[in-house]
Each structure stands twice: as structure tokens, then as C-alpha cells.
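Just curious: can you write whichever protein you like plus the matching C-alpha cells?

***
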Amino acid sequence: MTSSTQGAVKQRTSDIYLEREGQRLIGRVINAVEHEPWSVTLLQLAWTAGPATFLAAQGGYYLGFGEFLPTDRIIFFVGYTAFAGVIGILTKLLYDQHVRGKRKRREEALTTVIDRLPELIFAVRDLTLASLPPEQRKREAAWRLLKETELGPVGLATAVEDLTGSIHLADTARRMEIYRRQGMFHRARDLFDEEADLIGWAVDALQAGAPAMAGTLRERLEGRGVTVRTGVPRDENFVERIFAAIGDENPALMTLYDVEEVLVLAFELISGREIPVLTFNYRGSWQLARATDALERARVQFQIAKATGYSRLKALIALLTESDVELAETVAGQDSDTLLAKVQASFDQLREAIYDLRVEVANGRISVLDELEDKTRTLAAGIEIYEALRAAYREMGRRHAELIRARGRWDALSSGKRASATELSTGGRRSGLSIAERAIRLDDDEKLRAAEALMQPLRSLDLRRNRRRPAIASHTGMRPLTVESAKDLAVDVALVLERFAEISRPQNQRAINASNAPLLANIEPGMSAATKAAVGSAVVQAIHTDVARPAERLAAALVHHYRIELTDKAIGFLHDVYGADLETLQVIAAYAEPAPVVPVQQLRNRPPSIPPLDDNWTRQVNRGRRLLASHDREL
């Protein structure tokens, strides 16, 4: 048997195993919420409608009349038990018909959702790339391969070449990966050192315009890539952006990346993922307990306000990119000031383009009206999000002031307490601050109910690659996958997850942001639903449940906002129980200081303000709208 034949046999064997395992997993979830089998029911009916009823009747009659049942009473009870048994069996039959129908519907829903979610993830990913200019699309696709996929030597070389444009660096990456896969890490390091200048040049070239891409490239060349165990970092605050779009009824506030992220979250929760959530509780003085709750609430609201501001900025960037407004360079990893400057420059370009198009229309070139309409609509939508961005930063300022006041009250109350009342409890004490654990998860019944709620929205989108999609949609009632329909789907999925997992709660959002998503690279388009179920279950079970980062963030909050001293005992507790890094905890502990005479001096720096709208932007939008209205066109 040739090696290729052996490989094909192994692949078929693997596929059959995954198919069977997936069917078993789907059946287990369905059966977990079913009732007892027929054999048990019949035994129960036979006992309760027969001997149990007869003995109870004999005993009750004897106690009441001092004698056993006469013959006519016995005949009555025999008839009664017979009829009761028949009625019970008929009731069971009717109930079972209902249960079988319900089981079939639930199995269909669960199978459909498991099958469709990965396909939609792939389709939305492709839709995201379709909205980018060709050169940026090439780099973005390569970057996503590097940060989200376990690549072999050829795949790594392809991604490096597309990202950097260097064939030589791509060949070096391929050779390094070959040696690493054979365990020869020192040889791979030799190649890395030999090409250190070229690698440094490639990383520096990306650093100025795309620092996130530069970091990913260096990590992959050093041999540090994603694995099934580590998972894939999420695009933070995607939940906030989706619910902001829902609350403001403005889909532009979310991005296609957010759509992909919420679909991944739905798939992993239905596949059995549990995301840990760490919070802390205070037991002790009721006044200090209320102040602790108020301070934690103010701290969470300030963090959410900060995330909201940055989310609005990312949504604005996404709108401009999706509308074919070419930003100077990619925005991956850029800070807020840089992103804001790019937005303002793009607005200026749109303003000038609208002016030039208006001049052309005035000179009789009616053919540019479509382009004028697109540019005017884009700038108008951008201005709307820009105002939302300014409002978000003003809200951040208000939340900052509330945090200062809450911190002052907590400092005033805690300063007179014993040290033990405000230190981190490591177990055994009934007072003070203690860490509480729970998990974001779906039980088997919630998975089935969530699948039933998701089935129709997932089925409503047509994913077939056919240029005659509108004709297909008119006959099938399905919508083509567009930016608008993808965002509508994200809203439906987020609302279902909110119903069962409360993903919008601030502490749950923080936990989701701190966790890595599962690596879905082993799921391929066209796989059966059972195979996808098996792979999905395997990857969510394989991913390392990392509570170290949440524990470190919680420790930082306790030290910086509550002035809790991280003792050696507390550091050891966080390291042993949650796996928090010792060096990180020691750095955090170094910031613990006595309460200052003037409290909350560390919170003096106010959030930045966003410049007001340029009147020229609004003026061009209004003039563009009037010109379009004069030609009987509506925005």
C-alpha cells in the first residue's frame, strides 16, 4: 500500500470517528433533558394501578370498618385499577408523541445551529475582507492567518510573504518552521539570528502603521503562535459595541469583526465552553460594605465608559473602511490619538470629494450622482458616529468624577478600620474581601432552547456563492449575506446569548474579553454537522481555562482602587489557586501605598476630550443632500 493510500485511509478513519463522536455528543445533549424510558413507566403504572392501590384500599377499609373488603368492593377496585392503568398508558402514548416531536425539533435545531455557525463565521470573515482595498486585504488576510491559525511551513511562508512582501524572509520562515516541527529549535534559532537584520527591518516597517501586525509577525518568527490549548485572543469589547448598536438602533456602531466574534462565542458556548468569572465580595461593616459596592460599581462603569469610547472609534474606522474610504494605513494596534487623526483626515478627504462631485454635477455630469450619494451618505453616517464618540468621552468624564467621589468615600471609611477588615481574604475568615468564582456557561437544556431560538435567524441567510442571489432569495425567502444582514444576525445572536448567559453584564463582558476564543482552524467548510460538533467539543475542552489574567486584573483593581495590600500570603494564594504570575503580582503589590492626606491623587488625570465637529464637514453633507434632492434622489 502506497503512502498516499495509507494517508487517505487514515483520513477516512478519522472522519468516520469524528462523525460518530459528533452524533454521540448531539444525542447526549438531547437525551439529557428527556424523561424515563417506557419500561420504567410501565412498571410504575403496574405497581400504582395494581398492587399498591389494592393494598392501600384493603388497609384503609380494615382500619375504618374492622374487616377486609367484600367481594363487590374488590370487583370495583379491580375495575378501577384496570381503567386507571389503561388511561395512564394512553396518556403516556400521547405524551410520548409530543415528546418525540419535540425531540425531533430540538435535534434538528441543534444540528442546524452547529452546522451553520461555522459556515457563517467563514462567510462573515470573507465579507470583512471583501470590504477592504486589495493591498490592505492581502495584508489583513495574512495577519489573520498568523494570529488565528496553526500554520504549517508552507502556510507560514505564504502569510509572511503577503504581509512583508519579502520572498527571502518567507523562505526563512518556512525553513525555521520545518526545523521547529522536528524538535530542532537551536537550528531554527540559528536561522533567526542569521536573518536578524531582515526580520528587524520587516518588523520596523510594519510598526509605524500597524503595530499589532508587527507584534504578531515577530511572535510567529520566534516560534510563538496560537495553539489549540492557548486559543485565539478576542477583539475586545465586541459585546459592548453590539449592544450599543442595539440600544441606539444604529448598526454602524458595530463592525463585521464584532459579528464574527459573537458567532464564535455562540458556537463555543453551545459546544460546552465555560468561561470563568472572578469577582470579589466584602463582609463586615455595613457602611464599608455599601461604600465597597459603590466603589466597585463606579470602577466598572468607568471601565465600560472607557471601552465604549474606544469602541465608537473602532466602529467609525470600520464604517470608513467598509465604505471604500482608503485610510492611509491599517489601524491594527493604533492608539486613540492616531485613530482620531486618521478619522479627521478621512472626513477631510470626503468633504473635498463631495465638493468636487458637486462641481461636476453643476457642470452637467449627471453620471457622478451615484458616487455623490455614496460619499454624502458615508460622511453623514460618520458624523453621526463622531457625535456618539464625543458623547461617549463626555460620559467617560462623568464616570471618572463619580469614581473619584466613590474612592474618597471608601478611603474615609476604610482608614479607621482594622487592617484585617480591608485585606484580601485567603480562606477561612468570615470578614474582609474575598474572591468569588462562577462561570458563563449553558447547561444542556439551555443549549437546546438557545439552538431553537437561533435556528431561524441562521437559516434565513443564503451562503451560496451565486451571482443570481437576488433571484434565489425571491424564491426561497432567504436573504443574501451582506454587511446589513450580517449585522442583523449579530443582533439576533447577541439577544439569544443575553437571554441565557447575560453576556451584557459588565463582569461577564470583562471575563469574555479576558478569555481566548477556541481555535476553529480544524473546522473546514463543507464538514458535516456531526463532525463540526465533535471538533467544536474537542477544541473547547482542549483550550486552557486561564483564570490567571482575570486574577491579575482583579488584584490590580484591589491595589490601585481599594489600596488593599497584597501580602506575601495573598500573592501565594493568587498564584497557587489561580495561576497568577508571581512577578506580575509583585509588581502590582509594589504600588500599594498608605492612603494619602489628599485622597485619590492617582485619579487626577481626566479623560481626553474629543474636538468638536468641523462645520465644513456638516456643510458639505447638507449641500450634497440638497443637490441630490433637487435631482429627486433620496439618501
Residues 1-18, 467-476, 594-604 have pLDDT under 50 and may be disordered. The chain is about 70% helix and 5% strand. The two ends are 67 Å apart (CA to CA). The CA atoms of residues 24 and 318 lie 41 Å apart.
